[in-house]
Design brief:
This protein is an alpha+beta fold. The chain is about 30% helix and about 20% strand.
């Protein structure tokens, strides 16, 4: 079971419900230790007194505020806890607002809230259902780990979530901070229409499980490749900026590429031939791979690529429905949708090439099963 990182109460009106706060997300970043080059010796960070050069124990460290004249005001951790509103144990809802009224730029991090004991579940459920039925969120302030947070309490299925929000004065004014922002710009109607057409041609429903940390997968491939003594091919350089003179031509070719895609059974599009297929491969990141054998993304056994990807018919390259064309021309997101339709197990952690193989195999089994059933 998850362990609460904070416990306290939610106050709304004269109603109070004890809750625990839990992380709603987890970090899958691959972490490295620091080593001295040429050795296996760890390099560690230490808390060192810059005047004496001696290491300082954590218990002997206090907070210091620089007054600007070379002096410091020292503050003990207990002193900060003593002045926290509600002694850091209260989430006080001051208003309920429409969720649509909150600009997404204010959202920071998501946590789960859960009742601390079974007897508090009824009051918790009452607030949960009230928020769900009104489509409102509770705005509240609370203190955790020496910092006050502006938060929004939301209903999400069977759980209340607490979204930490940025205060208004923490959000930068882009016009004051950024250079080269466009002023009011006039476009020809055909340019706007072409841009709108491209947006509509690339429109798709939001399926978050289709998107993966491809950089982490490449790091895993790199580590597996090094373990096997292989080399890695570097990723392609970023594309050159679009020349303003060639903007219409770039838009037109983009629309042609997107418009030339056929529909898969999942309702997504696939690239056409030539440039579209090359663009799909570049988007999928297929240029970054070990020479020789290809390493799996989760440290599994590496295996050589099999089958002729260029064959658009038969087992070598047909999609399961016989209409999607050459699988090698599809993006990873499109292959993910096809894998979901075919109920391919483990698809969420597969690389694009593994998805292609899995979809091909699953499609072959489905066709074979259909033939046996028909006979």
């Amino acid at each position: 079971m998850a362990r609460a990182i904070w416990t306290g109460v939610i106050n709304f009106g004269l109603v109070t419900v004890p809750v625990g706060l839990f992380s709603a997300t987890e970090d899958h970043t691959i972490h490295f230790h620091q080593l001295q080059r040429g050795t296996a010796d760890r390099v560690r960070n230490q808390r060192v007194n810059e005047r004496t050069g001696k290491e300082v124990d954590y218990a002997d460290i206090v907070k210091g505020y620089d007054t600007g004249d070379g002096r410091y005001l020292t503050v003990e951790p207990d002193e900060l806890a003593d002045i926290a509103p509600g002694r850091s144990r209260s989430i006080d809802v001051t208003a309920f607002v429409d969720l649509a009224d909150i600009d997404p730029i204010h959202f920071d991090k998501t946590y789960y809230l859960a009742p601390t004991k079974p007897e508090y579940e009824r009051v918790y459920a009452l607030l949960l259902q009230a928020l769900e039925r009104t489509n409102r969120v509770g705005i509240a302030l609370f203190v955790m780990r020496g910092r006050q947070y502006l938060t929004a309490l939301r209903a999400r299925g069977r759980v209340l979530t607490l979204e930490t929000l940025h205060f208004a004065d923490e959000i930068r004014d882009p016009t004051a901070e950024l250079d080269h922002l466009p002023k009011k710009t006039a476009f020809k109607e055909r340019e706007l229409k072409m841009a709108e057409q491209l947006v509509e041609a690339m429109a798709a429903p939001w399926h978050p499980d289709e998107y993966h940390d491809t950089y982490r997968e490449r790091v895993e491939e790199l580590l597996e490749s090094k373990r096997q003594g292989n080399e890695m091919v570097s990723a392609e350089e970023a594309p050159e900026p679009t020349n303003v003179v060639d903007l219409m031509d770039a838009l037109r070719r983009s629309v042609d590429t997107a418009g030339g895609r056929g529909r898969t059974t999942a309702g997504r599009t696939k690239p056409g031939k030539g440039e579209a297929a090359g663009s799909a491969k570049r988007r999928a990141g297929t240029t970054t791979r070990p020479r020789g054998r290809k390493a799996g993304p989760t440290g599994g056994k590496s295996r050589p690529r099999t089958g002729d990807r260029s064959d658009s018919g038969g087992k070598g390259g047909s999609a399961p429905n016989g209409k999607a064309g050459n699988l090698s021309a599809l993006t990873k997101a499109e292959l993910s949708r096809m894998a979901a339709d075919l109920e391919v197990p483990g698809r969420s952690r597969m690389t694009r090439d593994q998805l292609e193989d899995a979809v091909r195999d699953a499609g072959g089994r489905k066709r074979a099963h259909g033939k046996r059933k028909a006979s």
